[in-house]
Amino acid sequence: MKKQYGKVELLAPAGSFEKLETAIHYGADAVYLGGKRFSLRNFADNFSDDELIEAVAFANRHDVKAYLAINIFPRNAQLSEIEDYLGFVGMEVRPDALIISDPAIIMAARTIVPEIPVHLSTQANTTNIGTVDFWSHMGVKRVNLARELTLVEVTEIAHAAEIEIEVFVHGAMCISYSGRCLLSNFLTLRGGNSGECTQSCRFSYEVVEEKRPGEYWPVIEDEHGTHIFNSRDLCMIEHIPALIESGVSSFKIEGRMKGLNYIASTIRCYRQAIDRYYDNPHTYSTDPAWFDELARISHRDYCTGFYFGEPRETSINYYNATPETVRTFVGKIIQDMGDGWYIVQVRNRIFKGDTVHLIQRQGSLVPQKINEIVGEKYIYLDSVHANDYVMLRLDLQGFKPGDLIQSC
Fold it and tell me: 378: which residues sit within 8 A by CB, 6+ positions away?
């Protein structure tokens, strides 16, 4: 019988220290992060060795688990470096788990840092209970299943498995088999399986006939352009009960390279949905505001991926959220000064009189009018540019340091 692991975990991306702080602020139970080496998101900011130590300690101080990704597919020359790195990780970083794809790294981890649990990455393409059992016998404690599976298949595996099962619930999806793609290698000489994917599948493409140089023809004409490989973005916010009842242990959000706006809104919405289900499963209902909020961050057209076996859900995407529909990240509260005054780090230009949204962990987005802007030397301003620190006077009190501010 499957071991019961309690409330499902909400696992969030942390591509930088600020994103780590934001993920924790908005309710992540665990975060996954990468160092400067051996991670499949080398273009994220990632963490230096010293920063990794600090990041894991910071997460643990806030009762949040931190999982370190060492999920590249290494070449021979990298194996000894990875063994040295594992020694450093075990002695200094001490994450709550390692996310690994490659069997050689798993074997090294079980020998060098046997005290740190191993979580198998989705890159390993696990699609059946037999493979889960194999990895369990190899000492793996959790498997992130391949994204190609339906919810029925996920449920069968989760109920039969003796170890934890993790699935993605939100974010970008790769067009290839669980990310095992060579397109970036061919077009940009940067290997996706080595952490350098340039997302070539999301470029816009046209074709040229050999005898008509300079004449470009779209493969498919569409008002949004031509993206012949583009996948849609996964969004399972409307299916939380089915996912929880499937027996999985962790809901993973994609996005170590995404911005703070994305981190805050996705974690906030899924946190609220999960908590609402556990508060009372029998009266659970999806809040339409969650989907509306997720629709107002940068994304491609949403779908439910392969979960329900509907071909149209995984068809090519020709939609991108436009600047008119996306809420802009305009600032972050640094300190509550009382009486409606807040010190704010500004990220996009704002004006006195603007109405903005305050993103709190709980409840709905709170529209607020910027009544006053005060800059250096207590000079009152009509507007302020990005990267400045100012005091704002808002209508209401009670917002917390770390709360983000969006445009309306």
Answer: none
CATH label of the domain that carries residue 396 = 2.40.30.10
Check if the beta carbon of residue 39 is closer than 8 Å to that of residue 69. Answer: yes
- Give the Cα separation of 386 and 331 in Å (integer): 8
Cβ atoms within 10 A of the Cβ of 57, count? 12
Q: Which helix (H) or strand (E) holds 59?
A: helix 49-61
How far is the C-alpha of 163 from the C-alpha of 315, rounded, in Å? 33
Beta-carbon count within 10 A of 123 CB: 23
Q: Identify which of 16, 39, 22 has the alpha carbon closest to the alpha carbon of residue 265.
A: 22
Structure tokens, 60: 């643990």
d(CA 57, CA 63) in angstroms, rounded, equals 10
Domain count, the chain: 2
pTM above 0.90, yes or no: no
> 172-224 pLDDT, tens per residue?
877 655 556 666 666 676 665 556 677 676 676 667 777 778 876 655 544 44
The residue with tokens 């619930």 is 169
d(CA 39, CA 121): 11
Summarised one tens digit per residue, pLDDT across range 227-274 is 455 678 899 999 999 999 999 999 999 988 899 999 999 999 999 999
* In contact, 11 and 67? CB cutoff 8 Å: yes
Question: CB count, 10 Å around CB of 103?
Answer: 12
Are residues 381 and 247 both part of a single domain? no
